[in-house]
């Protein structure tokens, strides 16, 4: 267990609220929420126990309010919002800071490090299903375990100690982070189908969608192997199976953005499969169709950010 630490949670949305809850539950830290608008009195609902917890820490709405650097930044903006959070990162980080990138994708460090003033960037794989269910409310679906996976090593150990005693999340240290990150990315790629169809997990009950998801999973796993992940093609069935067995009412963060008409995190979760597939000469026929659909749904014009 660590002593008291100064923690800034940048991006108090679905995952940021759960991270802030864990920091609050640890009971010994100075926690600040860093938002771009006033999120109101945030609360986190556990949909299994029904427990509702209010977040009680102070909220900033501009980097101008930052009074100095902190030891820990828990960064939970969407991947495409990272550049927009540069003002906070610049104000909060020094080389003595650790930024935990609580984001989907496999490019956390490359994305965050340029903004972090030489702080250490600890990539985190987020196995949490959290949905904004009201203007200041986030509901955690606990049938997807609330797990954060970080690379094994001293920074990961410190992070696990930071949140020791917080029931909201479990921190797991993984020795083969590349494999773990690509396993999670494959589930995110599959969830792109929810955003394309505007439907929750029930969509995977369709046999034709299941076949599409399997094709997507297999090509993602092929790219993953080329990137050094130890993931066999046979894992595709198991990963699609997660969605088939999911409560049909569960969604995905990219679906919630699609339903709300917001920009989509398409590049970090689906574009990356096509992008790195091309680099390795691996065909990605499902992504070749899905990626332009998601980019277009996100409002991207041809030549305006789509590869
Ligand atoms: N939700 C989930 O179940 C899961 C999400 N993830 C990943 O976690 C990451 C976060 O996703 P999620 O929590 O769902 O996203 P949300 O959209 O719920 O939260 C993002 C938050 O960041 C805020 N934000 C955006 N830009 C800034 C900025 N410049 N400064 C401060 N705050 C800012 C947004 O504010 P505003 O409200 O103003 O837009 C919002 O509160 C993503 O990479 C996602 O893929 C991973 C696993 C599961
Ligand atoms: C639902 C899940 C676990 C898979 O896409 C997720 O990571 C998300 O909502 O972004």
TrEMBL record:
> Mind listing the UniProt keywords for this protein, alphabetically?
NADP, Oxidoreductase, Pantothenate biosynthesis
Signal peptide interval: none
Q: What class of enzyme is it?
A: oxidoreductase
From the UniProt record, give the pathway where this protein acts.
Cofactor biosynthesis; (R)-pantothenate biosynthesis; (R)-pantoate from 3-methyl-2-oxobutanoate: step 2/2
Q: Which InterPro entries match?
A: 6-PGluconate_DH-like_C_sf, 6PGD_dom2, ApbA, KPA_reductase, KPR-Related, KPR_N, NAD(P)-bd_dom_sf
One Pfam entry name: ApbA
What residue stretches are annotated with the Ketopantoate reductase C-terminal domain? Answer: 176-295
Q: Which residues form a coiled coil?
A: none
The record lists the catalysed reaction(s) as: (R)-pantoate + NADP(+) = 2-dehydropantoate + NADPH + H(+)
Q: Where is the Ketopantoate reductase N-terminal domain?
A: 7-142
SUPFAM superfamilies linked to this entry: 6-phosphogluconate dehydrogenase C-terminal domain-like, NAD(P)-binding Rossmann-fold domains
Give the EC number(s) listed in the UniProt record. Answer: 1.1.1.169
| Role description | Catalyzes the NADPH-dependent reduction of ketopantoate into pantoic acid.
Task: Output the PANTHER family linked to this UniProt entry.
Answer: 2-DEHYDROPANTOATE 2-REDUCTASE (PTHR21708:SF26), PROBABLE 2-DEHYDROPANTOATE 2-REDUCTASE (PTHR21708)
Q: Which NCBIfam families match?
A: apbA_panE (TIGR00745), PRK06522.2-2 (NF005091)
Q: Which family does it belong to?
A: Belongs to the ketopantoate reductase family.
Record protein name field = 2-dehydropantoate 2-reductase
Q: What organism is recorded for this protein?
A: Catenulispora yoronensis
